[in-house]
Amino acid sequence: MATETLDTPAPETPLVKKKFSNSTFMRLVRYTALRLVTLAITVTVAVYLTILIANMGGYVDTIMRNEARDNITQSIASNPAYRNLAPAVREKLLQEKIAAEVERLGLNQPFAVRSFRYLTNALTLNLGRSIRMTSNAGSKEVRLILLERLPATLLLSGTSELFLFFASVFIALSLSRKYGSWLDKLTIALSPTSAAPPWFYGIFFILIFAAIFRVLPFGGLVDSPPPVNKVAYGLNVLKHLILPGMSVIVSSIFLSIYNWRTFFLIYSTEDYVEMAKAKGLPPRDVERRYILRPTLPTIITNFALLVITLWTGFTITETVFGWPGLGITLYHAIGYYDTPVIVGSTIIYAYLLALTVFLLDFVYALVDPRVKVGSGNSQ
Amino acid sequence: MTKLKGWFRALLRFPSAVMGLAIIAFLLGVSAYALITIPYSEAVRLWRGGEDVWYKNPKYAAPSWYNFFTSKKLPLSFVVDTADGSMSKIVTSNDPNISTVDMTYSFDYTYDGFPDEMILYFTPTIVQKFPFVSVSWLTPDGRKIRIADMAVGGNSTFRFSQDPKLGTRLNTDKVMQALFADPKADPKATTPTPLKGTYQLVISGTTFDKGSDIAAQFVFQGKLFGLAGTDKYRRDLMLPLLYGTPIALAFGLLAALGTSLVTMIIAAIGTWYGGWVDELIQRITEVNLVLPFLAILIMVGQFYSRSIWLMLGVAILLSIFSGSIKTYRSIFLQSKESSYIEAARAYGASSSRIIFSYLIPRMVPLLIPALVTSVPSFVFLEASLAVLGLGDPVLPTWGKVINDAWADGALYQGRYYWVLEPAVLLMITGFGFALLGFALDRIFNPRLRDI
User: Hey, is the C-beta of B411 within 8 angstroms of any chain A C-beta?
Assistant: First the structure.
């Protein structure tokens, strides 16, 4: 088995060993680079699709045209130099300026050409300017508005997803050991609760902990006014994190535990596990080296899929909790009809998803012996 | 057929499956009831109709079962009418032209709160002269309060707490409290206590022409209304709760069915033909993984239409190339090599015949649990879209109710019923399908049978 050779290297000559590790590293690099290139292509296609969907009804064009018209009409009306012009002359000037602006924006080019310009803009995160929304610093750059909100989303998703991952894997392991106990049965009975999305549990948690018992805040990132002290600030953020984090965790933990417990149970009937047990290895070693280690790549793939579905869920969870992340920005953008922000968020989400896929692919490469040894073509 | 019966019998051995089936049957019953009793156009009218449809309902009224949970009982709303005989009406006449119309209604008031408003609607039949009415109020302790005297010149409305004359006469701006309060209660108490007992509303009308008549309707707007309560716009929440059921089920079932069937067909085609077809399908799956599902739906809802059917179509399209295509693919790869497919190939079966008659039917046992378990996620998706304000603009749905409640800060204001009713229904639906799906998974997935 590949893991065995890696964990306890056979007594080989140092030269051979060095060559082996070198090639392992090279394989890792090659694998990672290949994944990066594939993902880059994937993201490009995804972003282009987003642009196509956003533009199919010609909505974005209309909005841009109207915006150009408004801006120019405004600037001509407010410019004292044009005040004494005759209406007809002024009208002509207006039309000319609008035509020039449309030309500058490239709106008179065919869509096929324009869409590729939009694509390069989107890929370089040049997301344009918002219509109504501003960042906290007052900028109207969509990129700045979105990047400003990113840390809050990452904080919420990062903590809850990491907790979810480790908690469910370890609880599942211990449950598979106590297979058939009442705790095990309880988890099976509770697993249908994962049918509901996080925001749904959020409503109940707000109702119980904020509205009735008044122990935790209704929502937001910090109290208003925020504490001055850095430690107090951090603790305050943590207090606000409890309910949204708990909603995310509760909404998927039982199903993950159930799935992984079943998975471990199926694996623990494999012959080599039976043999390890028969050899008299301690149960912890059996679990760690004979069950967890070979199943790790699968666990990570499953986790990647879970994280990807969770990303979607955060939009509404953030909205319900007033958590100032990307999701609530998207929600506000819907309310304001702020097209650039909506399209921009979609693109940022696509990037985040790709990043998630890449990170998990990388971890996958680290744990999957097939990548290191180079046998077989792992997906 | 016997196979189907066998599956069903196996299903009944699981208590969770029985519960799930019972829940789904209940929901189907509610849907059928809603669709039969309220036609589509009527549902839309009742939901989007405007003030004139809902004017008789109290605002923000909790459901009537709220009184089970509180020690302070709140008044229930009711409507009585002389037209249907729920309010008594006696016409006496001593003169060929002049007749008196006595309309009275007595009711027991045993609640601990005050009502929101009382309204009288008069519908006169005018020949020449306007009929005249005088309204008085009899309290349980024998007081008689004069409410109003007026000529009824056409359909008219009398709102007790908005009548300036009555307010002045009672010397208060809280007419409801003045009419229902116990005058002997502790004067130092900050909130007045209502006097319990039988109240009587007496309307004595006089008509001055032969053939002239008056009909009256008494609307009592308490703090509680119906079995579901009302919202900010006085809409009866029973309508969206009832009518949301068929919509949620239709959305969930259609989306689940569409997604799983198309996914399976595409996976089968990809595996059967292999080569670039398979490669293309795999690449599309990878792109789809990176496409943000909800954000795209939001864009479509914002830029094109918020119609629930368009959303359904887009949701299906985006869910086709999901992770499950890989699962199906790996299973199809195995069955592609099996001998019965080889036999089919040997006697010259066409590709479409092999795909649709031999490959896909074998997958049905895997398809059914996946289909049933994916229903809740689509039901919740519809609700999620509504919560984001992208619900169908005309249809009364559960998500719409949650969205309205949320926008109005229902949880901050303590109007829990408004959020809880649709949420509990959503939860029941999700649970029903999830329970059934889990049981089906255990029946059809032999690897899980012993675990």
Answer: yes
